[in-house]
User: What shape does this take?
Amino acid sequence: MILRHLSIVNFRNFENVNIDLTNRNIVFGLNDIGKSNFLAAIRFLLDRNFRRNGFMDSDFYNKDTNREIEITLKINIDDEENDDNKKIYTMMSGAISSGAEDIYIQLKSVYDGETLLGEPNLFWGVNLDDLEEIPSSQSFYELDKYFNVVYIDSSIQLETVFKRYSKEILKGESSLSEKERKSLSTQIKKLNNRIGNLSTIKTFEKELVDEYKKFKDDKNFNVSIQSEIELSNIHSKLTPYIQDEQCENYPTSGDGRKKILAYTLFTLENRRLEERKINLFLIEELENHLHRSMQIALSYQIFSDEIFKYLFMTTHSSLIVSQMDNVNLVKLFKDNTVVGKSFIYRVPDEYKTLKQKLNQNLAEAIYADVVLLVEGPSEKILFERILKDKCERYESFGGYILEVNGINFKEYYTVLTALGIKVIVKTDNDLKKVKGKTECSLIGINRCQRLISRKERENLSGIDPTRYEKDSSYQVERKRYVFSKYPKTIKRLKDNNIYLSRVDLENDLYEVIPGIMDKLARDNNSAKNGVDYLQSAKLINMIKLSKGISKHGIDKIYKHERFECLKVLVELCCR
Assistant: This one.
């Protein structure tokens, strides 16, 4: 079974949203964009307990009760040997024939002005234009026998969850052996008698009778207070304790431990249902009140445990998704109305060892509206300093600077643009000597060309190999030559918000503020020029430059064409 597509029409803040799915879906978006409503749509469709109360007028988009609510889920079932697909075939019985590839489950609801409710009506079939009603008895539909929706919200309480599932531990006498039943019954009877005969209880009984007779003098009136502990309610008296290494008992305390234990109860209980039902987990903001180590531990569990094979999860935490792979990223955002875009994301094989870093960077950038991709920390430090003067609150306006730092620009660019995020790129004009030839590979230009699916440029020929390997000024001159050789390519890249340095960050800066950079070198007792000084210890010296640069220097950088990427960022997110 593979979840394929979800459409939501006229429901809450969704006028008309269409989202491609896979079996594990991570839902992102700003606060109040509708992530909880997105999960609620799935709950109305597949969760009987959530569906049974129907739709209020506020559940209709803009309270437009003249239009019906429509929620449709498309599921692929072409693998007939899959256990969950077999459940689908059994569930749908006469509504599906062997060899079907996709099925649709649909909810429709029309508002009734007399009852002030919209009654949910469910349909299914293989042809979206010709669905049939799902057999039902009152509010119970046939699909409710096979789908088990497990909803976990951020305010989960251990006590509530434990009380709910502890019933499974002791189901009255039926779960006990004859010996256990007799022994417990005897002990419970003795306990009830001892509690009823406590001196404080007897004193309270007398006080109650005396007080009662002040209202009504009834000589035959009496009160008996009794304990009524029974086998059937023992589960309500159970409390989870945590033991330390010395086996001393402590009541569970601390939100983190309580939440982890509550999640454990959810998974433990629903593992027992897997053979009979299809578990669908809907999880909201798992990270609340959890230390980073617990978030990472949960990430490993969620993305490796088969019980979470059908998952919808909302999160604001890059740590919770640090181990994600083969997931569908769903970005909700507002464009007149709330819309969504999705992208099926798989960690490339070459980045498996860097998965956590790649995923965390993506999770932080995915909330932005505009992302500037840069080479590394030097660019980020300088650009953040300039933006402090030009648009200090750029991040609160939806901007973000992401340093790729060893990971291909393409990996970030592909995902972010697919999710509707505007991406700006600033990268070096790198060349690489081709071994055994008098040629250089145009790494920088071709890196940018790949981002916009353009043909890569041929190698630069006529390179003096000896000079190239020993003379850094010769390397710089060749890079400048390359930049001037392809003006149409450079312009095409700029039209796509991709900005190639003429050489690299330090040389670009030297075109703009040579005096400031040379002075920085002299002030730090260096005989090097400004470029060589910055490149000798890039991060440390860039911090020095950023701390000491004047407003005049910042203005010069910001207005220069070499750093147009910053103006574009400001224009896109700070206007």
